[in-house]
Amino acid sequence: MSVGKDKQKHYLIGNKNDMNLINFIESFPDEASCRKKFKEIRDTEGVVCRKCGGKDHYWQATLEQYQCKTCKTRTTLRSGTVMQASKLPFRYWFIAMHLLTGTKKTFSALELQRQLGHKFYEPVWFMLQKLRTTMGLRDSNYPIDKIVELDEGFFESVDTEKEKEDKDEKRKRGRGSQKQSTVMVMASTIHDFNTKKKYNKPTKFRYVRMLVVDDLKGKTIEQKVKENISSDSVVKTDNYSSYSKVKDNVWCHIAQKVKPKEAGKVLPWVHTMISNSKRTLLGAHHMVSKKYIQNYLDEFCYKVNRRYFGEELFDRLLIACATINYKNVVKDYR
Ligand SMILES: [Zn+2]
């Protein structure tokens, strides 16, 4: 059993061709090289004028801005991207992206602030949250399909809002502040026809999605299934009553009676994902806030889902940052 577990860990988070630190430093030795790369991506992906929607622009090298050929509106290199409104250097963003994509686990904003030698914590924290949101938005484009394991997990998180309230009302500190976040976990798998391996699970793992939900009512679950799982999927769950509507929204629903001790056998990948993500979160952040736990889970899923991308992973995130709608990324941080 333990042999199988070790293999699985390696299989899930191992990158074969990491963009290592030496490569990164050589590719991006200074601010200018980062700006150049970012401009290349914007040129390739296309700049859209926020005023008239025009796609043709002049590049004004001295101002480092685009100018719309139709209405003359100017667009800075950052504007419209995830970096809009950030005063941090491009290189900080590149370093953060390198660390987020090049490390197997994760790291805290405090750690990054220390590594950057930056005076303030807040902008570094915002930068990381925006990058995590970008990861989540990218993943939400892909439906979860094939044979889908679906279950819920409970993650320790701190309700900072509630903690504030408690303090104001001079209640006993800590009451209601330690909370759990309820998370729906979906793992896309396919049949594994390779029966030679003795310890193999019957299915092969493909993708995972984790969604923080307010409750586990039938309606909530049905809505999330509709939004996230492809309607031609086979969905496996335990026989919890809230899953009763799942069958109306997918091709086939298999609800199995599961003894708590055997949940790992019936829904093996979901349980692997829950325990791996908990370990990752605890290792780097100790306790995350209820409000932002979705972002940390998004980062975890993004990395797992792209575990075979190797050094491409950095480029992919960079492209996502250059093309994602800034408004969608910042909605939570105002
Ligand atoms: Zn224009």
Biggest beta sheet attributes: 6 strands, mixed
How would the global form be characterised? globular
* Structure summary, number of beta strands: 9
What's the N-to-C terminus distance?
Answer: 48 Å
Strand content: 15-25%
Summarize the structure.
With 334 residues, this protein is α/β, with parallel strands linked by helices. It is 43% helix and 18% strand. Strand 1 (57-60) and strand 2 form a beta hairpin.
Task: Tell me what the structure shows.
Helix content is 43%, strand content 18%. Bound molecules: zinc ion. The site of zinc ion has 8 residues, from loops.
List keywords for this structure.
334 residues; six-stranded mixed sheet; 9 strands; alpha/beta; globular
Task: Describe the SSE topology.
Elements (H helix, E strand, L loop, with lengths): L1 H12 L7 H7 L3 H15 L11 E4 L4 E4 L5 E3 L13 H13 L6 H8 L5 H18 L7 E12 L1 H9 L9 E14 L11 E11 L4 H11 L5 E5 L13 E5 L6 H4 L1 H18 L2 E2 L3 H13 L6 H12 L2 H5 L4
Bound molecules: zinc ion (ZN).
